[in-house]
Amino acid sequence: MQLLAGCYLLLAVAIVSELMRCTIGAIIAGNLAFQGVMYALGNTPAIDQANRADVLVWSQPITGLLLAYVMAIVVMLALTFRLQSRKTDFL
């Protein structure tokens, strides 16, 4: 889910800014954030416990995390469409 959110972040920056340097910055920031967030989540006791379980466990922190990613994707898409619709110059 985090990779999907990163792809939507990259798409949003590329569409809104239309600048190569901003898009490259979003790629770098997204990759670094991905590594940092995955490390931090892996060290969270509730998620670490779920990773060590033999069966899939849908605990409250995991469900909340998935919901947060879905909400972030929806907000990025809505903000992208909103900012793109306000543009007057597309050249």
How does this structure look, described?
The mean pLDDT is 85. The protein has helices at residues 2-17, 20-42, 45-52, 60-86. It is mostly helical.
Annotation keywords:
91 residues; mainly alpha
Say what oligomer this is: single chain
Helix and strand succession? HHHH
Total number of helical segments?
4
Helix content: over 70%
Question: Secondary structure elements and their pairing?
Answer:
Blueprint (H helix, E strand, L loop, with lengths): L1 H16 L2 H23 L2 H8 L7 H27 L5
Helix pairs in contact: 1-2, 1-4
Structure at a glance:
With 91 residues, this protein is mainly alpha-helical. The chain is 81% helix and 0% strand.
